[in-house]
Every structure is written in structure tokens, then in C-alpha cells.
Specification:
The complex is a heterodimer of chains A (about 140) and B (about 100). Chain A contains one helix and eleven strands; from the N terminus they run ββββββαβββββ. By secondary structure, chain A is mainly beta. In chain B, strand 1 and strand 2 form a beta hairpin. Classes of the chains: A mainly beta (about 140), B alpha+beta (about 100). At the A-B interface, strand 5, strand 6, helix 1 and strand 7 of A face helix 1 of B.
Chain lengths: ~140, ~100
């Protein structure tokens, strides 16, 4: 199917590559369908692009690349909602903010990662109950 | 806003399935216990608001970002992907039971 995006133009994607958010991203109610697109150029950055809103896309990044000791503990509620049956089905991404378009200053939200069930193509933003986890973790150090 | 007064250990019900109990209150801090079905999300509001705002900031990233020249502190092309830890979920190939 053809998906319009403001950053990347019209993209041809497979229905099976579309993720459904079991709960919408906080601040973006009513938007459930997204797909992932590699930024490319050998970089590990991934774009989470809304299928329903051409303008809406997020940069996401696997936290193992900048904080290998970061651990995400899911509640039973999260596991049920994401229909996760095995740890291998699940992947964690963090949403990245690029302040003022300056990639060197980018921060990752460790308090509310995006947890994805690859097997079922489901995802949600999980708010972890740990007040010590920063919402703006500087990826390249402070 | 509905405002109800509770003494220690008294409970409020929201709907049929949500219970809010005043566990303790001292020095201007109330410890509030919440029992709710698994599918009902419970947040500290300031955390919810902060995350909402952070998401909105994240949505502003332009598509023309130059990541190519960025060196990430621990670039793991071969790094083992670490998934989240799940409560009582059995790993494939083992005969664990769900807790």
C-alpha cells in the first residue's frame, strides 16, 4: 500500500509491516498505525512513521547502542496488552528528541520506552515506574 | 472534581473495579494505594504530562537530520539485542509456567 509521508514522500509498504499501537503514544490520541523505516546511510536510527498522519514521525533508537545497562521491566498488564509470549518476541526502542534539529544534542526518553512485539506487530509506549530514569538522557553524553 | 475525605485505610471505589485507599498521610505527603485491573493504566500526572510533552518534542524531528557522521558511544553492530524482561514469562524451549 502507498503511504504518504511529508519527510520521505510516498512510500510503498507492506500491510504486514504495519504496527498497531495497543495504546496510542501519549499526546497523540487516536493514532494507532505506524511502520518503521531505517534512516539509512549505515546509521542505526529508525523512523517510526504514522500511517494515518503524513506529518507525524519519530526517531527511535535501540538503547543498547548508547546505554547497554538499561533494563526495561514490564508489568503483567503490559505483557498481556502486547500479547507477548516470549522475551524473544519483544524489542525495546527509545524515542529520541533532537533539540533545534541539532543531532549532537539528541536525548532519549528512558522513562517511557517503546516496546514492540515483533511477532504480533503490536507496540506501546510503556511508562516505567522508576523516577530515576531520565526523560532526557543525552545520547552522546553531556 | 469530586473531593472526598478519607481517614487512614479508608477506600474510594471508582466504577466497580478500581479501589483507591489512603494508606498513610503525614508531613503533607499522602501514600495512596491503587488496585485496578491490569488494563487500567495508573500514572503520576506530572510524569504523564512530561512524557506527553517529550513525545511532542520528539515528533518535531526533521527528516533531513544528518546522523551519518555521528559516532555513538557504544555502536553495536554485533551487540546482542537485549529485550525487556517479562514477569513470569517462559522462554522458548523451556517448560516454565506462567506466574
Amino acid at each position: 500500500m502507498l503511504v504518504e509521508t511529508t519527510r520521505f514522500g510516498a512510500l510503498e509498504i507492506d500491510e504486514k509491516d504495519i504496527f498497531r499501537m495497543t495504546s496510542p503514544l501519549l499526546g497523540f490520541p487516536g493514532l494507532e498505525r505506524y511502520f518503521m523505516k531505517d534512516h539509512g546511510g549505515g546509521s542505526p536510527f529508525v523512523w517510526l512513521q504514522s500511517v494515518e498522519d503524513a506529518e507525524l514521525a519519530f526517531v527511535i533508537l535501540d538503547p543498547i547502542l548508547f546505554k547497554p545497562d538499561y533494563e526495561v521491566h514490564l508489568t503483567r498488564g503490559d505483557v498481556d496488552e502486547l500479547e507477548i509470549e516470549s522475551e524473544d518476541d519483544a524489542r525495546v526502542f527509545t524515542l529520541v528528541v533532537v533539540p533545534g534539529g541539532d543531532a549532537k544534542k539528541m536525548t532519549a526518553n528512558l522513562q517511557a520506552p517503546l516496546v514492540v512485539n515483533l511477532k504480533r506487530q503490536l507496540a506501546k509506549q510503556v511508562v516505567l515506574n522508576d523516577p530515576d530514569l531520565p526523560i532526557k538522557y543525552p545520547i552522546f553524553g553531556s | 472534581m469530586l473531593v472526598l475525605s478519607r481517614k487512614k485505610n479508608e477506600t474510594i471505589m471508582i466504577g466497580d473495579d478500581i479501589l483507591i485507599t489512603l494508606v498513610e498521610s503525614s508531613n503533607g505527603v499522602a501514600k495512596i494505594g491503587i488496585e485496578a485491573p491490569r488494563n487500567v493504566k495508573v500514572y503520576r500526572k506530572e510524569v504523564y504530562d512530561a512524557i506527553q510533552e517529550e513525545n511532542r518534542a520528539a515528533a518535531a524531528a526533521p527528516g533531513t537530520l544528518d546522523f551519518g557522521s555521528m559516532e555513538l558511544p557504544t555502536l553495536g553492530g554485533d551487540a546482542a539485542r537485549k529485550g525487556p524482561s517479562l514477569p513470569g514469562v517462559k522462554k522458548p524451549g523451556t517448560g516454565g509456567k506462567r506466574s
